Structures are given as structure tokens and as C-alpha cells.
């Protein structure tokens, strides 16, 4: 093989996970496209580097490089608020479709359920999302959305909420016609009658 003696001049691939130099939180790699898209002003002659996304709540660092040559980027350097690092509204949970934690809570307060995850799933299926250039993590927001919905259900004591919250319209549509009110403890059978 021609490359048996080739020297890989220090180009060992960067680790998939690296500790944030400020808080020590283990951070995952993020595509440079995500960093370039969301950092407000990139420095001239920026040293190419593998970047990592620190999602620790109390840490101001958002992106840090594998080497020390390239710059760190903090919350204020980004075009968007980083939801996992914010504790005050507006807290974004879905960047592609502009959904905030407040939006989730409002829908649950008003309707007793949450349709956001289903709506986002439909958009993802249709190829309408752009997480790699909109979400600071560069990843799909669905996991974050699902967790935020669960937290919202727990934090809101709405009278319409049942012990088994529905996350969409599906279960309602599947109920047999004429069954509108469930007795406590009663279970709905979704088997077809015909
Ligand atoms: Zn950090």
C-alpha cells in the first residue's frame, strides 16, 4: 500500500465528545455550518477547527473549538437565544418554527393538551425543517420539545388535564362515536366494532 508510511501530520480525528474548557460539561461535536450560521460575526481569518456545543445550563460558552487557536463563542455572540441556557422567557424550544416554552404552556392552559410535537413531526416528515442552520445544537428539536411538553404538563395544574395527557388530536379522533365523556378509571377500547 502506498500510504503505509504516510505521516498523518497531527490530523488525528477530534474526539466525538470533549469537555467544555470553562465548565467541564461534556459537549458533543457540532457542524461548522451550524456555527457559521448562528454566530453573529465570524472573525476574519478564523482558524478552522472542530467545534463543540456546550449545553450546560449555567455556562455562558456555546461553542468551543478542539484546539486553542480558534475562538470560543458565548451566548451574546449568537443570533438566537440558546434555549437550554435560558431561564427567562422567551425560551426557544423549536427554532425552525419559532416555538417557545411559553407557546407550549399557553396551548396546554387553553386546550388541556399539546399538539406541537405532532405538528413539528409532520413538518420534519415533509422536509420543511432546517435544524442544522437554525438550532444551536445543529440537531432536531423533537427531543427537547417532548421534554418541554412533559415539563409544561407537570407545571400547569389545568383542570382539563387527565392523568394520561394526550399529546395530539389522534386519540380523540380514534374514540368510538358517541363516547365523549369517560368515567373515572374507564378505558377506551380502540378496537374496531365493525
Ligand atoms: Zn460550558
List descriptors.
2 domains; 26% helix; binds zinc ion; alpha+beta; two-stranded antiparallel sheet; 5-stranded antiparallel beta sheet; elongated; N-terminal domain of TfIIb
What's the structural blueprint in terms of helices and strands?
Layout: E1 17-19, E2 26-30, H1 32-38, E3 51-53, E4 61-65, E5 73-74, E6 92-94, E7 99-100, H2 101-111, H3 116-125, H4 131-134, H5 142-155, H6 170-174
Helix pairs in contact: 2-5, 3-5
The protein binds zinc ion.
Describe the protein's architecture and organization:
The chain has 2 domains: 17-77, Single Sheet (N-terminal domain of TfIIb); 83-163, BFD-like [2Fe-2S]-binding domain (Arc Repressor Mutant, subunit A). Helix content is 26%, strand content 12%. The chain has helices at residues 32-38, 101-111, 116-125, 131-134, 142-155, 170-174; strands at 17-19, 26-30, 51-53, 61-65, 73-74, 92-94, 99-100. The longest helix has 14 residues, at 142-155. The protein is elongated, with a radius of gyration of 22 Å. It starts with 16 loop residues before the first strand and ends in a 20-residue tail after the last helix. Zinc ion binds next to loops.
**Average pLDDT over all residues:** 82
Determine the number of helices (DSSP H or I, runs of at least 4 residues).
6
What structural class do helix, strand and pairing data support?
alpha+beta
Which ions, cofactors or small ligands are bound in this entry? zinc ion
* Poorly predicted sequence stretches spanning 5 or more consecutive residues: 169-194
Walk across the major sheet and give the strand order.
1-2-3-4-5
Say what the CATH topology of the largest domain is.
Answer: Arc Repressor Mutant, subunit A
Count of domain modules: 2
Alpha-carbon Rg, integer:
22 Å
CATH superfamily of the largest domain: BFD-like [2Fe-2S]-binding domain
Amino acid at each position: 500500500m502506498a500510504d503505509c508510511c504516510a505521516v498523518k501530520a497531527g490530523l488525528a480525528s477530534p474526539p466525538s465528545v470533549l469537555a467544555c474548557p470553562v465548565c467541564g460539561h461534556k459537549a458533543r461535536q457540532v457542524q461548522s455550518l451550524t456555527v457559521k450560521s448562528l454566530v453573529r460575526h465570524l472573525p476574519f481569518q478564523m482558524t478552522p477547527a472542530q467545534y463543540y456545543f456546550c449545553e450546560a445550563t449555567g455556562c455562558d460558552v456555546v461553542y468551543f473549538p478542539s484546539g486553542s487557536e480558534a475562538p470560543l463563542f458565548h451566548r451574546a455572540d449568537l443570533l438566537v437565544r440558546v434555549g437550554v441556557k435560558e431561564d427567562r422567557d422567551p425560551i426557544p424550544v423549536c427554532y425552525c418554527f419559532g416555538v417557545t416554552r411559553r407557546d407550549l404552556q399557553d396551548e396546554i392552559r387553553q386546550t388541556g393538551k399539546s399538539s406541537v410535537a405532532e405538528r413539528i413531526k409532520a413538518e420534519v416528515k415533509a422536509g420543511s425543517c432546517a435544524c442544522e442552520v437554525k438550532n444551536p445544537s445543529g440537531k432536531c428539536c423533537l427531543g427537547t420539545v417532548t421534554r418541554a411538553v412533559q415539563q409544561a404538563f407537570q407545571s400547569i395544574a389545568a383542570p382539563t388535564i387527565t392523568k394520561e395527557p394526550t399529546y395530539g388530536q389522534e386519540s380523540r379522533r380514534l374514540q368510538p362515536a358517541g363516547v365523549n365523556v369517560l368515567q373515572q378509571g374507564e378505558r377506551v377500547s380502540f378496537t374496531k366494532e365493525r
